Amino acid sequence: MRGSFLTRNGGKNIALKKKILSLCVENGNYSIAQLSANTGTSVPTVTKLVGELIQDGFLEDLGKQGTSGGRRPSIYGLNPMAGYFIGLDVGPHYAHMIVTDFKGEEIAYYPDIPFTMAAKEENYHRIAESIRRLFLQSNLEWGKVLGCGVSFTGRVNPSRGYSNSYSFDDDTPVDKILSDDLGVPVFIENDSRAMTYGEYVVSRKDERNMLFINISWGLGMGLVLDKKLYYGKSGYSGEVGHFPYMDNDIICRCGKVGCLETGASGSALYRMVGERLKEGRSSSLSKKYKSGESITLNDILDAIHEEDVLVIEVVEEIGATLGRAVAGLINIFNPEEVVIGGRLAIGGDYLMLPIQSAVRRFAQNFVAKDSAIVFSKLGPKAGPLGDCLICRSKLLGIL
After folding, report:
1. 305: buried, middle or exposed (CB in 10 Å: 19+, 13-18, 0-12)?
2. Domain boundaries, the chain
3. How much is the pTM?
4. Which of the chain's termini has less CB crowding within 10 Å, N or C?
5. What's the pLDDT tens digit per position in 50-73?
6. Is the CA virtual torsion 280, 284, 289, 290 positive or negative?
7. Which residues contact 71 (CB under 8 A, 6 or more apart)?
8. What CATH architecture is 208-378?
9. How many CB atoms within 10 Å of residue 124?
10. Which are the contacts of 287, defined by CB distance < 8 A and separation ≥ 6?
11. Any residues with CB less than 8 A from the CB of 163 and at least 6 apart, and which?
C-alpha cells in the first residue's frame, strides 16, 4: 500500500517522518535546520529522513530561498501529488464527495449524490462502491489513494468506528467494512465535526477558538478549542440540538421533550411551515399543499428565494430561537467566531439578522463584543473537505 508507513505506529524514524510531514501541513515549508530544531533531532538524521520522504514522493525540494546575504538554505514542502484523500459526507438522502491532493487542495467535487442511508451492512458496501466509482470518473489512479474519511449525521464515535444512527451490529465497526472494501484506511466522523474541521483548516486557522453551528434537518455543533478539534470523552461532543432548551411538548427524534432542535432546525422549519399551511396561511406553497402533493424541505428552502412571506417569517423565528442559544454558547466559550453552516444557511440575512439581534440582547456584552457571527465560507463543501483533512491528520497523528 502506498505510504504504508502512515498506517504504522512503531519505530522512531516513522514517528519522525510523520512529525516532519505534520509540521509542513500545519505551518508550511521548512529548511533542514528548522526541521531539526522543531523535531529536536540532529541535522544528519533529518537530512536522511527528508531524503527518504522526497524519494517516496511525499516532500519536494522547493529550491534555495531567503535573503541575498549569506548562504541560502534549501526549503522543503509537501508534494501535492504524493497521494489523494477522499471525503464523503453522507446525509439521510444525499451525499457530497470531494477528492483532494496531499496538500489538501480540491481536485474533484461531486455534490448531491442521490443516496438513501439506513442501518444495514449492504449500505456500507454501496457507499464503498460509490466512492470507488466516482473516484475513477476523475481519471485518477486508485493506487495513489492514501485514505478516506466518511461522515454521518447523528452521534458518531470515531475511535470505535461506531454510528448510533446507522451502525447495525455492535461488534462490527463500520469503518472496518469500508476499509476492507476499499483497501485503504477509513475514518468515520460526525458531520458537524467534519464541517468544523474543514472550515477551520481552510478558512479560519488563525482563530484559537471557533464554534460551528450546523443547522440542517437536525442541529449539531463542532468545537475548535485552543486550536484543537474537541471530541469529548466518547466522541459525542457538540450535540447542541439536544440541549433541553425549548418550553414545549414536542417529542424530539431522540425521544426526549424540549430539545433545542425542535425549535431551531430544518425539521422545525418543515413542521412549523406545515402547521401554518394547515391554518390556511397564504404561501407560494399553498396550491401544492391543498392539492395533497408532498412538500419537501427543499421546496420550503426554494420558497425563500421567491420571498415567500410565510416561510421567511418562520426562518426569522428559527433564527431568533437559535440566536438566544448562541448567546448562551458565547457566554460559555467566549470564541473568536461562531460560524453558521448547513442547509438552512441558505436563509441568508433572514436567518442571520435575528441570530445577531438575539445575541446582542442575551449575551454578556463584554463577552460577545469579541465574538463574530458569520456564515460558512465553504458551504456544502465543508463536510467532505473536512473528511479529507481529518483523514490526513489522523494518519499523521495530528488528531
Report:
1. exposed
2. 4-80, 82-197+382-396, 208-378
3. 0.92
4. N
5. 999 999 999 999 987 765 556 778
6. positive
7. none
8. 2-Layer Sandwich (3.30)
9. 24
10. none
11. 152, 154, 155, 156, 157, 174, 188
DSSP label at residue 226: T
Q: Are 82 and 57 in contact (CB under 8 A)?
A: yes
Do 208-378 and 82-197+382-396 have the same topology in CATH?
A: yes
Question: Of all helices (H) and strands (E), which one includes residue 180?
Answer: helix 174-182
Q: What is the CATH number of domain 4-80?
A: 1.10.10.10
Amino acid occupying residue 353: L
Entry field: residues in the chain: 399
Q: What's the rounded Cα separation, in Å, for the pair 103 and 97?
A: 17
**DSSP secondary structure string for all residues of 117-177:** --S-HHHHHHHHHHHHHHHHHTT--GGGEEEEEEEESS-EETTTTEETTT---TTS-HHHH
82-197+382-396 maps to which CATH number?
3.30.420.40
> In this structure, which amino acid lies at residue 83?
G
